[in-house]
Design goal:
The chain has 637 residues and is mainly alpha-helical. Among the domains are: 99 residues, no CATH class; 68 residues, no CATH class; 124 residues, Endonuclease, Chain A. The protein is built from 30 helices and 4 strands. A 4-stranded mixed sheet has the order 1-2-3-4. α10 packs parallel to α12. The longest helix has 18 residues.
């Protein structure tokens, strides 16, 4: 919350009392409480001068370091803790207490990174803290821990363990500080009820230090005892993050099932950050079998779509893609949300949306038009990867935006100025996707076919895989079939493939067997028998024809035994649902390209889309439909 005059603190005149020593925490708590409240009320300090006034106001009271740290923590929540600290008279011995206090407040507020991450937040503060801690030996640091007022929380102990490893202490020494800290953690686990948040922090540190261990087992045992119906959204988020770190091999299946059930019950209360964390963790854990939890999380995401930050929404989309989850209502809500915020959102979010749309084959003109327009306006601000992701999605989903001419002019400008910045595989994917939209980047294809680029492509991939070789082959085929005027370098012969590989059916979708079984009987009636057509015919250029029919010069259908007299070849494309976008009858880019190339190779292409054929209820209707399709083509010939 913004407060006017945030840099000014309320004036407070404390009662007279004696100057407190460093260890006398209780004696001065009343005096510091108002200042702490003032900082909490003011909220966001806006300048270093405000920090300086805060320190000056505390100095007359002789506040101890622990109290001063408490005030600084309020300020540190807003990212200025290092500036506040540099004005305080923090002694070396109290640096450890400062770190512990930071970690306690971080646990409560969930706004600061872990202790070790905090050390890397500010280089100057990291060096100072590490140098301070390195000046102590094991026994001195242990005495500080034991003599800290009110003890050190288990989260503080966990943070200190990470820091000790950071400064080079031996984690395996049986008499060293880290071993003592582990024993202290075990004592607390056995004697106290530790909050789930602190258990997760301890578990993460322990697993990072030593992997599976007795202490980690104790942590998991305590976690198992704490997972019940009283689980809070924050606890659930921390547990999934912890489990994603250690992996399912260390988690009892029953514990994961209980956690999923508890989280499902409180799904309607989950805040946006927790939803994003949980979905990401489920993706890491490959918990796609959580068939009841994930739909609830998607439903909650749909309702709270406007509350997600760009980073959170990007994380959700990547997680759903990894989990292969798709929900139409979620996507409709995403369309509306993205169009409203596309002018100000992070380019990474736009790329994530386009990648997810590609993953689930969702063709949305509303989003794609907005994305294309922003790409034309702000392409210079995008990374090469982000540009490629957006072009690839449009190409493979066969969507040509209304501003296509401006978009490809901008793309040509970007490629001209930043060609060397594109990773070879990224560039190849993008140029290959352009051909689906009948945009042939000949100026850059010539550079792709050069020996220099091909060598870069090989080095990056440690030898070209079948997918890359097939992309190069299809690019080369475009130059010979559709751009006959192209006079540039050709693709070397040894890079050509004879047949497109079935790598995720990247170049053509396989024959839909269910649709073929429906078509087979009526087709035999129309043609006069099974020996008048062939299925899954492999062409010399690498494509596979679903059903091929051959005609002689008079337009008569030839039996298989007389195909040497073929005058015209008909390619019957039995287009099942996998060849279209999920939400429309929009043929995918790879299928459009395949049909163009088959026509250039001399085939007459006839499409039998599933949505036309499946509405035909009787075999008579189906036979009449096929007869009209084929006879119309034959009569035209």
């Amino acid at each position: 919350m913004q407060v006017e005059n945030a840099g000014c603190l309320p004036v407070y005149k404390p009662p007279l009392f004696q100057t407190a020593t460093r260890g006398n925490f209780t004696a001065t708590m009343n005096s510091i409480s108002y200042i702490s409240t003032s900082v909490r009320t003011v909220g966001k300090l806006t300048s270093n001068s405000a920090c300086r006034r805060l320190i000056q106001r505390t100095e007359p009271y002789g506040l101890c370091t622990k109290q001063l740290v408490h005030v600084c923590n309020m300020h540190m929540t807003h990212g200025r803790g290092s500036q506040a600290l540099q004005f305080s008279n923090v002694t070396e011995k109290d640096s450890l207490d400062f770190i512990n206090q930071i970690e306690r407040y971080r646990t409560l507020s969930n706004t600061l990174p872990t202790g070790e991450a905090y050390l890397t937040h500010s280089p100057a503060n990291r060096r100072a803290t590490l140098q301070t801690l390195q000046s102590f030996n094991d026994s001195e640091m242990w005495n500080i821990v034991k003599n800290t007022p009110n003890g050190v929380s288990i989260s503080g102990l966990a943070t200190l363990m990470g820091i000790c490893v950071k400064i080079g202490m031996d984690p395996d020494s049986p008499t060293g500080l880290i071993s003592k800290l582990k024993k202290e953690c075990l004592r607390i686990l056995n004697e106290e009820d530790v909050p789930i948040t602190n258990l997760c922090l301890l578990g993460e540190v322990v697993y990072s230090l030593e992997g599976a261990s007795p202490l980690l087992s104790e942590v998991l045992k305590s976690v198992s005892d704490s997972v019940d119906v009283d689980l809070t959204p924050l606890d659930a988020s921390h547990l999934y993050t912890f489990f994603a770190l250690i992996g399912t091999q260390h988690i009892h299946p029953h514990l994961m099932t209980r956690l999923n059930r508890c989280t499902e019950r409180l799904a309607h209360r989950l805040p946006p950050t927790a939803i994003s964390n949980i979905l990401h963790s489920l993706a890491v854990l490959q918990e796609g079998q959580s068939v009841t939890l994930i739909p609830r999380l998607i439903e909650r995401s749909t309702l709270t779509m406007g509350s997600f930050s760009d980073a959170e929404l990007s994380g959700i989309l990547r997680a759903l893609a990894r989990l292969s989850q798709y929900d139409a209502q979620f996507l409709y809500s995403l369309e509306h949300q993205l169009v409203n915020r596309i002018e100000e959102c992070d380019p990474d979010l736009i790329s994530s949306v386009m990648e997810y749309c590609l993953h689930v084959r969702w063709c949305t003109s509303v989003v794609f038009e907005a994305v294309a327009e922003r790409l034309v306006q702000n392409a210079e601000m995008y990374s090469t990867t982000q540009i490629a992701q957006q072009i690839v999605a449009m190409g493979r989903l066969n969507y040509l935006p209304s501003c296509a001419s401006e978009m490809f002019k901008k793309l040509e400008s970007i490629l001209t100025s930043r060609f060397s910045q594109f990773q070879p595989r990224t560039l190849l994917n993008m140029l290959h996707s352009c051909i689906h939209l009948e945009r042939f980047p000949l100026n850059f294809v010539s550079r792709v076919f050069s020996s220099t680029f091909l060598q870069r492509l090989e080095v990056q991939g440690h030898g070209l895989d079948k997918k890359a070789l097939a992309q190069l082959t299809q690019l080369s085929m475009c130059t010979s079939l559709e751009c006959t005027f192209y006079q540039g370098p050709k693709l070397p012969y040894h890079y050509h493939m004879k047949k497109f590989p079935a790598v995720e059916y990247f170049f053509e979708s396989p024959l839909d067997r269910f649709l073929f079984r429906k078509v087979h009987g009526p087709l035999c009636k129309v043609l006069g028998g099974r020996n008048y057509f062939s299925t899954r015919v492999f062409t010399q250029n690498g494509y596979t024809v679903d059903v091929e029919i051959c005609l002689d010069e008079e337009g008569l259908i030839l039996p298989l035994t007389q195909w040497d007299q073929t005058h015209k070849r008909i390619a019957l494309c039995l287009d099942g649902p996998d060849r279209f976008c999920t939400n429309t009858h929009h043929l995918l880019g790879k299928e459009v390209t395949k049909r163009r190339h088959l026509q250039k190779l001399g085939f007459v292409v006839i499409q039998i889309p599933y949505f036309e054929y499946e509405i035909l209820r009787t075999q008579r209707q189906q036979t009449r439909y096929l007869h009209q399709k084929i006879s119309h083509t034959v009569s035209e010939g």
